[in-house]
C-alpha cells in the first residue's frame, strides 16, 4: 500500500464535481448520464490513491463493481439493507436499474483507462528527454 497524491487530488476533485451535479443540476443529460460516466474515474482514482494496480486490471475491476451495484438495484438492495428511508443511501447506492447506466459506466471506464494510459506514456516520454 502507498499514497499517490495526484490520484487522491483527482478523486477528491471529481467527487466534488459529482456532488455539485447531484445537488444543483436537474437536467436530462448531465445529471443522469455525465454523472454516471464520472462515477467511474472517482472510484478508479480513489482506489489508485492507495493501491498499485495495473491500469487495465483496475479499470475492469471498477467497471465490474459499478455493474454489480447497478444489478443489485434489480433486487431492491437498498430496501433489503433497511435503508429505504435513508435519502443519502438511496442517492449513493441507487434504486432504479438502467441499461443506460451500464453504457455510461462502460464509457467512463474507457475514458478513464485511456486518460491514465495516455498520461503514463506522456510521463515516460518526458523522462526520456
What are the salient characteristics of this protein?
129 residues; mainly alpha; 6 helices; 78% helix; elongated
Q: What would your notes on this structure say?
A:
With 129 residues, the chain is an all-alpha fold. The chain has one domain (5-128). Helix content is 78%, strand content 0%. The mean pLDDT is 94.
Distance between the terminal alpha carbons, to the nearest Å? 30 Å
Gross morphology is elongated
In DSSP terms (H or I, runs of 4 or more residues), the helix count works out at 6
Range of strand content:
under 5%
Q: Radius of gyration in whole Å, from Cα?
A: 16 Å
Helix content: over 70%
Overview in brief:
The protein is mostly helical and 129 residues long. It has six helices and no strands.
Topology:
Layout: H1 5-24, H2 30-50, H3 55-72, H4 77-80, H5 87-93, H6 99-128
Amino acid at each position: 500500500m502507498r499514497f499517490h497524491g495526484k490520484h487522491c487530488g483527482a478523486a477528491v476533485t471529481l467527487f466534488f464535481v459529482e456532488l455539485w451535479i447531484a445537488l444543483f443540476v436537474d437536467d436530462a443529460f448531465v445529471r443522469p448520464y455525465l454523472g454516471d460516466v464520472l462515477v467511474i474515474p472517482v472510484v478508479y482514482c480513489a482506489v489508485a490513491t492507495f493501491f498499485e494496480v495495473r491500469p487495465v486490471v483496475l479499470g475492469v475491476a471498477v467497471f465490474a463493481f459499478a455493474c454489480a451495484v447497478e444489478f443489485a438495484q434489480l433486487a431492491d438492495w437498498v430496501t433489503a439493507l433497511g435503508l429505504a428511508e435513508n435519502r443519502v443511501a438511496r442517492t449513493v447506492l441507487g434504486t432504479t436499474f438502467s441499461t443506460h447506466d451500464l453504457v455510461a459506466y462502460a464509457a467512463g471506464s474507457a475514458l478513464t483507462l485511456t486518460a491514465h494510459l495516455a498520461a503514463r506514456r506522456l510521463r515516460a516520454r518526458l523522462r526520456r528527454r
